[in-house]
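so i finally got all the pieces together for this one. its two components total, 831 residues if u count the protein bits. some of the lines might not be protein, just check the labels. i wanna see the whole assembly predicted at once instead of chain by chain like last time, that was a mess tbh
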Amino acid sequence: MSPDPGGVSRRGLLGLAIGAGAAGLAIGAGAGATAGVAVGRARAETAAAVHPFFGGHQSGITTPVQDRLHFASFDMMARTDRDDLVSLLQDWTYAAARMTQGLDVSVSGAVGGSPEAPPDDTGEALGLPASSLTITFGFGPTLFELDGVDRYGIAAQRPSTLEQLPAFVGDDLDPNASGGDLCIQACADDPQVAVHAIRNLSRIAFGRARLRWSQLGFGRTSRTTTAQQTPRNLFGFKDGTRNILSDDTAALDEHVWVAASDTPAWMAGGSYLVARKIAMLIETWDRVRLSEQNDIIGRTKGEGAPLSGGDEYTEPDFAAADTTGAPVIPVDSHVRLAHPDANEGTRMLRRGYNFVDGNNDLGRLDAGLFFLSYQRDPGQFIRVQRSLSTDVMSEYIRHVRSGLWAIPPGAAPGSYVGAGLLS
Amino acid sequence: MTTHRTLGVLAVAGVAALVLAGCVAKRDVAATGALAVTSTDSACEVSDSSATSGTLSFDVSNRGDQISEFYLLAEDGLRIVGEAENIAPGASRTLTVVAQPGEYFTLCKPGMVGEGVGKAGFSVAGDRVEATGDDAEQNQQAVDLYAAFVKDQVEQLLPAVETFVTAYESGDDDAAKTQFPNVRAYYERIEPIAESLGDLDPRIDFREVDAVADGLDWTGFHRIEKDLWVPAEDALNADGASAWQDWAPSTPQERAAFGDQLIADVQELYDYVHSADFQTALESQGAAGLSNGAIALLDEVATGKISGEEDWWSGSDLWDFAANVEGSKMAFSLVQPFAESKGDEGGALVEQIDSGYADLEAALAVHGSLADGFVDYNELTDADKRELTDLINALAEPLSQLTVTVLG
């Protein structure tokens, strides 16, 4: 009996797809192009809920921030070689290109394969639309060199600034749940869709890469378009009022995208991602009186306006003083220390998420901010984070996980994410 | 009538242990240029210790007082390349196999239980023999070889359990503790077979928490284990309850009852795997059944062993772990030629599974071996457990594609 064409194994299928080059990977030209093969999930979706996977930049950076996150960090497994890394990135690209269009991870998917084999797709996203899913891949410093070993022959192409972030005041990092050779940021409007993506990509990686740590997030804590309202973090304050927006191409080119004139050349169109898991001491914060909360942040809790006056979008006046001559926006407030004016004009694109991972043994909420920032150079984050060393908000937060990844440019149809580095 | 079967060629470069091919002669074969084997109660003499690859015939004469068996084992001493069964005293039978170049062992098993006697090396030189025969024949051979493997394991399990129980019942706890993990290995290699028999596996191998949850009288290996490794007064069971809640060390009478029960249950398992029902059950599942068995054993490892829940008091989970992996690999090796006959995709899958076993075995070997013993499970670090888990995932994922590839 010849196998049902829909029952082709995932690995076999992936091999074929890559071998066929452009023809096999001609997904992502847009939702319309895939409508013919889409079953169920794609039917109900609107164009706005589907983001193209292929393009000059990876999606998931300037894409309007979705409500849900599943972030995962991976290590390559022992005894893997360059071919394993390339095939993994090809397989991930293939699967991500499909899933972001609202399709199953392979053609046979969750229910179209042989009843004698586990389905290619785990199935929990069946019937759900694409839900704005974006999948963004990154390369950690250890991928290029681990304990002095150039495992994949790419050490010479490591960006000089891609290294372990320096220690910052107040760090309480878990080294086993920080860093990683590879990272995947999956954002969607539906948590089930984001989790489905990471789960299936983890499964595809078995034997080549292993999950190192992961994080769920909800409730975006910044905006990337003018259409989006400024959301609130778990301290109850608006977060991301002054974020770089997706239509501000000049700011994006200056602060977020690696330029063609930057080195290394393969990073042109890419960016650098810093992820920091910041635990918030919720119970303590909630006992702080409102005026002090406002002073710590430097903005009002209600409007989000700077303490120097105006509304949310009014520029803070750091020179403003009260009748005693003291600054209206305290010198150790978060807004002042994080502001470009205090950091030689340094800006970043943020797209962090709130998290609550249940509670700890003391009955306190295990909650906080999963901070994600994209910048043209890791030095931008380092500059601002050092500036925050005197931030009074530090008393209420702990940085518990950290990682830095090079985010390569987007892939062209028929190619794969990271091809510029590895081909 | 002469039945002559050949089995697909399956050696893979770099995986020397998998030089395994053969067939089981269900009927006597008129041999030409055959090797002569003489089985007695204490010896197993083979007329030559080497041969050239191709069809080999072993004429086995039983000169002993008990019914005997003859085995040709693969290089690992575990996998059965071929066997001649039920040779009555004074009778002769012929085993015909298609042997590939490689190292083997010959072995007789007078009385049909125990480890056997006269185990000796046997070399096959020459060129590889190419596969012939259709799927149906290959399927039958794979099933027959797996049945032989299961029977052999239970044949070794039964006397090992008897010796173990004797030590336990007589209060020789040191001897019983030493034997415990090794006795279990015979069982763990074929666990899915016992599990298919309804209440037999619960009686033989249930953990205390499962017996309590199922409302069963707790018996079997783990009941005895707790008598041998008596928990401290403040120790906790796997579910967090006090180890001494509803439990006390067994009296000599209770030990006798638990011990005799275990022997009776293993005897029941022995009777089953030597019955026509067992053969029929295996045949009805065919190669897919073996393939699924290989996966089931790895799932055992992934769910029970890696969490350290199985041997809560003895800490001998790694023995079970290794035996599960061996049993899984045995079943896989029989299905392997089917997968390889399915073209490049099948070949690539086999290669992936082979390296998966190799990586897992190498990681396990860091902690010991079945022959020399393993470290106590509690000595594993979280990183050790994590590595083993990752390697199980790496192996189990391609293994889960084996059945459909074989059937495809």
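Chain A has a mean pLDDT of 89.
Residues 293 and 350 of chain A are 22 Å apart (CA to CA).
anyway lmk what u think
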